[in-house]
Amino acid sequence: MGRGNMLELLSPAGSYEAFEAALSAGADAVYAGGAKFGARAYAENFSQEEILRAIDKCHIYGKKLYLTVNTLCRDREMEELYHFLNPLYQAGLHGIIIQDLGILRYVRECFPNLPIHASTQMTLTGAEGARFLKSLGAKRIVTSRELSLAEIRHIHENAEIEIESFIHGAMCYSYSGQCLFSSILGGRSGNRGRCAQPCRLPYEVYKDGARLNGKKEEYALSMRDLCGLSMIPDMAEAGILSFKIEGRMKKAEYSAGVTAIYRKYIDLYEADGRACFQVKYEDIAKLQTLYTRGGSDTGYLKTRNGRNMITLEKPGYQSNTDGEHPVVLSKVPVSGTCILKKNAPTVLSVACDGTEVCAETEPAQEARNCPILEEDVKKQLLKTGATDFYFENLEVVLEENCFLPVKTLNHLRSQGLKQLEEEICKPYRRVEGQADYAFQLPEPVSAREREEIFCMVFSITEAEALCDEAIDGIYLESFGLYKDSEKKLARLHDKLSSENKKLYLALPYIFRNDIKREYPLSCFDGILVRNYEELQWLTESGYRGMIRTDFNLYTFNREAEHVLRESGPTGIEADMAPLELNGREMAERGINRSELMVYGRIPMMISAQCLNKTFNQCRGRHQAVEFLHLKDRYRKEFPVLTDCFHCVNIVYNSVPLSLHAKYDKVKRLQPFGIRLVFTDEDLTCRKEIIHAYGACVNGGKISEFPVQNTTAGHFGRGVE
């Protein structure tokens, strides 16, 4: 049964076999996905019947099962949620892991007693984000893998919410939830559980035309695995409640082997504390044999980023389980008493950890030949077979000269154990969820003279160069601000205001404690928000200006859009239409209150790693941004922006998105506005692009677009 300890060891299960293996090795809880909505679409996953069986088994063993519903969901898929979740909710599912804001609201309203865990796919990096998710109904957050122990401790001390963090397993080069690499290149979206792992492929790295990596260093994006075994005391004392092992794509032997080792050391820490905690070399060595990619280290727990975290060489798996890790789940001990009398019902009482039931059958008969013996009764009752129980103690009270058929004894045993299972599970059962949820309907399209045009630029100088163009506003990246730039910024804002144009500050993609600063918000008409930390920070700061949200605060469905629109101190003026929806799906969702990116290089990865640092070119913090380039095996070049102030790298697509050739379809969608994102184009090219889209917006035609090699992205195809 359950251990009742403070710390939770949470293990992965991509199959029912792996689920039982994890329980057998000592997991307190297991996370698994069903046939739909999970972020590991290529795992074996569970059938609905297997999930129900696993829920009951967890009840019996005093464990917990968390269901992964951690993908983004289209509007037409939202209606499938009730029939998928309701039987699991009624059975007593212990928690649900969610990425999509629309699903989060739906679950909170329809299944009010189901604990909600905010997935690591939500890219939660600070206490503000944790408080925001708590306000929406989350009981627990799964922190981004990139956080240090100090940052996790800060969340624990400043947000009253459970914290779950990864302690072992594979690492992504990108912040989870911030990667479109697989999606853009091949239509297999990580946000839909179908990542093709392009980060595990070889790349050449260039800076100013010179190659930085040699032939033996081509796996520049391939992260080593995380192994936090030695960090258990530090992680526990930082406020982490649940220690999560990655690996739903891996075999049952992995779940059993890794879980068993972490169980051993969590128990050691809980029993004896930090003073007696010491990891044996042989256990570290054993972990290295269990599906480890390119070695392992403590990841980001102690290090911001660095070369030692990258495999560099081809990241092959090391795996040598040799069947030494048990995958057979031990049975639960019960005690029983069987009373056989000739003039009273035969009774079997069964007790387990405070729960007791009694099963009855027909009275015993007068023996004609051979009376049944005590050992005969025990022999039949001890045959618990495929049940989860075994009799640790069994007493038989037998009247003399009795007889009862073996078949009747077998039925009595089965009935008693089944009643016991039902009684153990009974406290967890729930009434059905609320099926009459009123989904958001597409809003009536309001009349608008034309969609507005906003441009995004990197610096004040770049913004000044576009002031006189036929645009409605400019987004200025926050890394374009410096200590001495406030006067220039004020002049820029005055210039734009005099022409009835807006200036918005684009806050960082990631908003961690060490990059927060005083922003001159009074110099801007509004803010572009890119994470939940910023949204809550603005709310708590009393900001009253306009707020828009970027593409990476995903609103795949109308429910998510509605949740986001109501957020922030004054609500959201406009969100960004998801880059992974096609035109038909945008029409179903409606983008009348959403911007649409129609031109620019799509940011495919936001990473805490730095190519400069990986190849010993680190320039330190607070340096001007610069571009490096990745070249893949097909000789495609991907620009990589090194943002040293915020300590992130942004990997862009090799070609820019442009919807100029499909603008008639864009027009029919009637977006709130369109966005032109400029990265490495020269000024002449930028002006020509603005003029081209100005013509599109005003119903004109383009004879020739200034950029020859472009892509329509997902506008026509969408993602799986």
Folded structure, characterized:
The chain folds into three domains: 8-171 and 224-278, TIM Barrel (Alpha-Beta Barrel), CATH 3.20.20; 332-428; 446-601 and 656-720, Alpha-Beta Barrel (TIM Barrel), CATH 3.20.20.70. The chain has 720 residues and is an alpha/beta fold. Strands 23, 24, 25, 26, 27, 28, 29, 34 and 35 form a nine-stranded mixed β-sheet that branches. It has an eight-stranded parallel barrel with strand order 1-2-3-4-5-6-7-12, surrounded by six helices. Strand 1 (8-13), helix 1 and strand 2 form a beta-alpha-beta unit. The protein contains 21 helices and 35 strands.
Features:
720 residues; alpha/beta; TIM Barrel; eight-stranded parallel barrel; 3 domains; 21 helices; 35 strands
Draw up the topology in text.
Elements (H helix, E strand, L loop, with lengths): L7 E6 L2 H10 L3 E5 L14 H14 L2 E6 L5 H4 L2 H11 L3 E4 L2 H10 L5 E3 L8 H9 L4 E3 L6 H10 L3 E8 L11 H6 L17 E4 L2 E2 L7 E5 L1 E3 L4 H6 L4 E4 L6 H21 L8 H8 L1 E4 L2 E2 L12 E3 L4 E3 L12 E10 L2 E9 L2 E7 L3 E2 L7 H8 L7 E10 L3 E2 L2 H20 L26 E6 L2 H5 L8 E5 L8 H13 L3 E5 L19 E4 L2 H10 L4 E4 L8 H8 L9 E2 L6 H7 L4 E7 L2 E5 L3 H4 L11 E6 L5 E7 L4 E5 L4 E2 L4 H7 L3 E5 L5 H15 L23
Parallel strand pairs: 1-2, 1-12, 2-3, 3-4, 4-5, 5-6, 6-7, 7-12, 11-14, 17-21, 23-24, 23-35, 24-25, 25-26, 26-27, 28-29, 29-35
Antiparallel strand pairs: 7-11, 8-9, 8-31, 10-15, 13-16, 17-18, 18-19, 20-22, 29-34, 30-33, 31-32, 32-33
